Amino acid sequence: MRRREFFRVLGGAAAALPLAAAAQQPAMPVIGYLSFTSPQERPTLLAAFFKGLEQAGYVVGRNVAIQYRSADGQSERLPALATEFVNMRVAVIAATGGEASARAAEKATSQIPIVFTVGADPVEAGLVAAFNHPGGNATGVSLLAYELDAKRLQLLHELAPRALTIGVLALTNSPSIARTLSAMQAGAEANGQRLVLLNANSESDLEAAFASLGPQGIGALLITTSPYFEGRRAQIVGLAQRYAVPVLYPWRDYAAVGGLISYGTSFTESYQQVGLYVGRVLKGEKPSDLPVVQATKSELIVNLKTAKTLGLDMPTSILLRADEVIE
After folding, report:
1. Which pLDDT tens digit goes with each residue over 261-303?
2. For residues 102 and 105, what is the distance between their CA atoms, to the nearest angstrom?
3. What is the 3-state secondary structure (H, E, C) of the chain?
4. Residues of 74-96 as b/e, b for ≥16 C-beta within 10 angstroms?
5. What angle do CA 292, 119, 303 make, to 5 degrees?
6. Could you report the per-residue pLDDT of 15-60, keeping only the tens digit for each?
7. Are 66 and 60 contacting, i.e. CB atoms less than 8 angstroms apart?
8. How many C-beta atoms surround the C-beta of residue 236 within 10 A?
9. What Cα–Cα distance (Å) separates residue 145 from each residue in 66, 108, 187, 292?
């Protein structure tokens, strides 16, 4: 299905109404769905968003409309896309895919309500005043992804105890990179691990980063939380297999396409919450009165097929804790 057709199917049901009937209906509120990567790439998350909307009493095409704007993995496009929604006077902006989307929406408007998903601490990032009382026009869900990095390093230590030099694949131009490394450093020192930051701000950087693993003596790799990496997960998993390196990923989607092991928050649960909050805002509640929700459910996914390909024996301690084992 082509991209335009995909969006037409999702948001264009109202267009099928006869003109006379449509004229009798009051104007439906419009949701501006701002995303770092195309919603088409992760339909399960969009379905979860719709489920949350329905919990609040809204069905796209029946009593609410939706417009999509995607940066296609290019964060510099987000401010202009957010401004489009402001000019369209949407009722609420769902800023998905991380801090960059939320920040672009907040800079574009202080009036239109915003519901976001971010991996960082939104208070530390300056997106809200406090978790319980966000203030301003924004609230949403914090995945607290960076707080999980210490646990990810511990899992890598269990998986590959002899790998004491750990590569950290990251966007070095990310505004949250300093917070990410700071959160990881204490955990690495406790495990006797040394961290090596690998820049991956472009596709050529990704190839170069993996090619540098051997020369730098890196025995295992951790992929940091990033919508940019999410959109390139097949490429990253393919590189990990080519260079035969144990890699721990932040989300389930990586393990589903052949990644060795993943540990992270459940995205579907978080996007459902965003949909629910958008619905509550449409009913008249203010973002400033809706506490930022902290995601609590984490998933450990193990791909035994990939482990066998790499010649790795998956530790029993990890298998016993796994929420899902892919064979």
Report:
1. 999 988 889 999 999 999 999 999 999 999 999 987 889 999 9
2. 5
3. CCHHHHHHHHHCHHHHCCHHHHHHCCCCCEEEEEECCCHHHCHHHHHHHHHHHHHCCCCECCCEEEEEEECCCCHHHHHHHHHHHHHHCCCEEEEECCHHHHHHHHHHCCCCCEEEEECCCCCCCCCCCCCCCCCCCEEEEECCHHHHHHHHHHHHHHHCCCCCEEEEEECCCCCCHHHHHHHHHHHHHHHCCEEEEEECCCHHHHHHHHHCCCCCCCCEEEECCCHHHHCCHHHHHHHHHHCCCCEEECCHHHHHCCCCEEEEECHHHHHHHHHHHHHHHHCCCCHHHCCCEECCCEEEEEEHHHHHHHCCCCCHHHHHHCCEEEC
4. ebebbbebbbebeeeebbbbbbb
5. 125
6. 444 444 444 455 899 999 999 888 887 888 999 999 999 999 999 9
7. yes
8. 23
9. 28, 25, 15, 15
d(CA 102, CA 140): 10
Contacts for 233-237: CB closer than 8 Å, 24+ residues apart: 233/257, 233/259, 235/203, 235/206, 236/169, 236/206
Q: Determine the distance from the C-alpha atom of residue 129 to the mean position of all C-alpha atoms in its chain, rounded to a whole number.
A: 22
From residue 38, how far is each of 53, 113, 287 by CA, in Å?
19, 22, 25
Supply 63's token pair.
């009593």
Q: Which two tokens stand for residue 193?
A: 């691990």
Q: Report pTM.
A: 0.81
Give the span between the Cα atoms of 309 and 306, in whole angstroms. 5
Tokens for 244? 């035969």
Provide the pLDDT for residue 298.
Answer: 87
In the numeric block, which tokens belong to residue 52? 């949350």
Residue with tokens 């979860």: 48
Interhelix angle 43-55/267-282, rounded to 10 degrees, is 40
Whether the per-residue pLDDT at 13 is higher than 50: the answer is no
